[in-house]
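Data availability (excerpt). The following record was deposited with the supplementary files.
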Amino acid sequence: MSTFQIIMLLVSAFFAYKMYEFIQNIDPNTEPESIQEAELISSEPTADEMIEEADAVYSEGDLDKAQLLLENITRVHPDLAEGHNKLGFVLAKQGDLEKAEEHYNRSLQLEPNDDMTHNALAGMLASMDRNAEAEAHYLKAIEIDEEYAPTWFNYANFKRRLGQTEEAKEMYKKALESDADFEQAREELEKLT
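Predicted structure:
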């Protein structure tokens, strides 16, 4: 046997011994626990699944259950803007405007350029006669997405409620420019002309 062959034999024996040590130190319970943990994690609903469930419950008209589900979502996923936005919407529907405003504002902290949240918050503030704040949110929603017809429509209704008929007409026209099939906007505009 040559010197090279002896060195190769020693290196192979060394690696074989290290593999033997490694295998001897493996805890047989480690792998099954990891599999169980993976199964447990995968069985928990995702944020999207939780939102879908809350949406379904809301669609069925169960506001109390929708509120509970959305409160859970905001607890489990405190940085999920959509959860705060939807919880704000449900709370506003139930008349808890103070809490609704808190959740709308939290949603906007997380996603400041969410025109839908600005629009919803503007409508709620307008219903509370906080008109300057409402207008600021309508304008921000329009700045973010000037093609979203419902924002123009809501802003027009707001202007009409304030007695600003000419401005309301312009806003209804903007809504129809964004969506020519928006029948409510057309009807409201016809009432003013």
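Summary of structural features: The mean pLDDT is 88.
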